[in-house]
C-alpha cells in the first residue's frame, strides 16, 4: 500500500483523514476528506430537549491509546468522578453499539477525542444522535469544511486546554440551554450531508464528496496550465542571468 501511495501521490485521494500519510503524499490542498459511515442508527423523530438528556458529557471507547490519543487517558482521570459525565471503556462488540446509541441519545454533548488517528466514526455517530460534538483533536480535518461551518454545531477545544484541571468541565457547564438548543437544531439540519445512500440522494454524503472533488478541479487545472506555459518554447541554454538586461527603446 505504501508503494502505491508513493506512485499515486499526484492523484486526488478521498480519505477519512491524513493521520497515516506524510504531507507530501496527502494534504488538504489536493485531497478530499470524506465522512465515516456512522455505526449508530440515525435518530428519527428526535423530540428531545436540553432537560430531557440527563447526561452532560458522554464518551465510550478505547481509553488507552498511543501517540495523539494520550489525551484520552488524561481526560478519563479528570472526568471519571463527575456525576453527570459518562466516560468509560467500550467497543462495538456484543451490545456495544446498542449501549452507545442509548448513551449518546441521552447526552447533551459527546466527546470526540483523537485516538491513533485524528478522526473516527465517533464524530458522525454523535451527529446522527444529535449529541453536540466536543472535538478535542488538533490535527483533525473535516469533510466539506470549505462549505460547512462546523462551529455552528460543534465545540472545539485545544488539547492543551482540555487536559487542564477543571477547564473542560467548566467550559461545557457554561454553555447555556439556548446555545445548546441552537446547535442541536443545526445538527438536525445538516445530518443528511453525512448519510450514505444507494442509490444516492440529493446532497447526501455521496453527492457531497463528488461536489468536493469538483471544487478541486479549478486549482488542478490552474496548475496544469501553468505547467504548460513553456511547453512549446525552445529549450533554454542560458545558465542563468548574470545581470538585469537593459531595456532598449523602453520609451
TrEMBL record:
It is a single-pass type II membrane protein. Signal peptide: none annotated. It is found in: Golgi apparatus membrane. Keywords: Glycosyltransferase, Golgi apparatus, Signal-anchor, Transferase, Transmembrane. One of its GO terms (cellular component) is Golgi membrane. Pfam families: Exostosin_GT47 (PF03016). GO terms for molecular function: glycosyltransferase activity. The keyword Transferase applies. The keyword Transferase applies. It comes from the Eukaryota. Residues 8-162 form the Exostosin GT47 domain. Belongs to the glycosyltransferase 47 family. This is Exostosin GT47 domain-containing protein. It comes from Vigna angularis var. angularis. The gene is Vigan.01G006800.
